[in-house]
Design goal:
CATH topology of the largest domain: Rossmann fold
CATH architecture of the largest domain: 3-Layer(aba) Sandwich
Structural class: alpha/beta
Radius of gyration: 20 Å
Largest sheet: 6 strands, parallel
CATH superfamily of the largest domain: NAD(P)-binding Rossmann-like Domain
Order of helices and strands: EEEHEEHHEHEHEHEHEHEHEHE
Strand order of the largest sheet: 8-7-6-9-10-11
Shape: globular
Number of helices: 10
Number of domains: 2
Number of strands: 13
Helix content: 25-40%
Strand content: 15-25%
């Protein structure tokens, strides 16, 4: 099976009815192709279409090939200031932007993000771009925390040696965070997330635990906390590209290495090492 679902490239040819793209355009591609006639698509939730065909999700092949044929409506021109390497990062960034949109961020909010992996970092960037004054990020990987700690609005918490609840209380004068965005996929944050959120706050679930988790419904109700889940993204790729093009979000520090296609095996071997300071490795054709 051909892998790959995060990509950028150059338009080789367009269909007769395509007017917004032309050969030679630098582009990135949204990898989920829905049934454009489905109820979900017509309601604007095309990412939830049960028939969606998503690159590198069996049995659909991915994009690690010299060429792909892709719907023009899911293909986006890169701003001149955005490199191909950054363009290939729009897919995970879109997950963060979608989560930030679901969070209904208000200017000056303080957010907690659990998980400083690739998706967690994208959520942090999107939350800050969306108006958060501060994001408190918790993880067990010091190397990942060091990467995101470069942002002045970020407070990092090493969950191995620090108490997240104590830090949140200190940073919010005991009130609790306005937002809680879970991006680790671990079940542990679910045990305390309600306690960390202020009355009337919001919780957005981005990570997916491997098994069902419990929820204190009464505690959620007593604080009137809004809880929502997210799945991939919809209608945010243009916004993600604008944030990159304007310089509001800089993803270059998260590109840990680049390999030629001929060295793809070495790239996958590197990825399999799970180096603690690696975020994204890229292959160029």
């Amino acid at each position: 099976m051909i892998l790959g679902h995060e990509a950028s490239g150059v338009v080789d040819a367009v269909g007769a009815d395509v007017t917004h793209l032309r050969p030679g355009d630098r582009v990135c591609m949204e990898p989920g192709i829905p049934d454009f006639r489905s109820v979900e698509t017509l309601r604007g939730m095309y990412h939830l279409d049960p028939a969606v065909r998503f690159w590198a999700t069996p049995p659909i092949h991915g994009c690690l090939t010299p060429t792909v044929v892709h719907p023009a409506s899911l293909t986006y021109r890169l701003p001149d200031s955005v490199s191909f390497a950054e363009g290939a990062m729009v897919e995970p960034l879109a997950i963060g932007v979608h989560a930030a949109a679901k969070a209904n961020i208000r200017p000056g909010d303080i957010a907690v993000v659990t998980g400083a992996g690739t998706i967690g970092m994208m959520v942090v960037h999107a939350a800050l771009a969306g108006g958060c004054a501060e994001v408190i990020v918790s993880d067990v990987a010091a190397e990942k925390l060091a990467l995101i700690d470069r942002l002045p609005e970020v407070t990092t918490v090493d969950a191995r040696s620090q108490d997240l609840a104590k830090v949140v209380a200190e940073r919010t004068d005991g009130r609790g965070a306005d937002l809680f965005l879970e991006a680790s996929g671990s079940s542990k944050p679910h045990e305390t997330m309600i306690d960390l959120v202020c009355p009337g706050g919001r919780i957005v679930l981005v990570g997916m635990p491997a098994a069902p988790v419990g929820l204190d419904v009464v505690a959620l109700q007593a604080k009137e906390i809004a809880l929502t889940g997210t799945f991939r993204y919809a209608n945010v790729w243009d916004r993600a590209l604008k944030l990159l093009g304007s310089g509001r979000i800089d993803l270059k520090p998260l590109i840990s290495g680049a390999f030629d296609f001929a060295d793809s095996v070495a790239a996958f071997r590197r990825a399999a090492e799970h180096r603690p300071d690696d975020v994204k490795l890229q292959i160029s054709l």
